[in-house]
Amino acid sequence: MIFDPLTASESEKTNGVMLSGHTDFNSISCLVSQPITALQVLMPDNVWRYVKHEDNAYVINIGDQLSFMSGGILKGTMHRVVRPPADQVALRRLGLYHFAHFVDGVPLDLVDSKKVKEEGRVLFDGKIPTSDEWERSRIKSFGVDKFIKGEEYDIEILNGIQVRYILDFGILHMLTTLISDSFATIIDEPCYKLTLKY
């Protein structure tokens, strides 16, 4: 995808935020690292920081589906796209992405793993959704104002998961609370296979 620079009017309307903060609702997202700086991640200290460009590198993001299946051991990173710094703001940006999804019907239940059983937690109240049910619920809820109003953030319940919405420069974004680790550490069998659709 090619992104043209924001016009002055667009930049003013969005306060420079081109895609508000979110976690990906799929399993794994991959993007080619690009020299024009626009991607930011929300760090543990609640500060947005730019993702540094590395030549010949990929940015890999764990999505909601894998987070759920790991019992919260893997965490999807809250990220957003903003107006590039002043020295890059007039440049066109090329984004090359791949969003991997589980095939429809895969239950987002905990994987059969010793580590997940010991350290993970069940994240859903009641029925565990399938991969396609979760995607549909996230897509359908986008932009719908059905929140429990709070002082610091608003909450929406999707399939028993609390999704937090925080006002960021006038744009809503989601913050899911899960814990992080390397995917390799939760799989007991090295030949474990995930079925993905492309």
UniProtKB/TrEMBL annotation:
Highest rank taxon of the organism: Eukaryota
Coiled coil: none
Endpoints of the signal sequence: none
SUPFAM superfamilies listed in its UniProt record: Clavaminate synthase-like
Domain Isopenicillin N synthase-like Fe(2+) 2OG dioxygenase: 19-85
Protein name: Isopenicillin N synthase-like Fe(2+) 2OG dioxygenase domain-containing protein
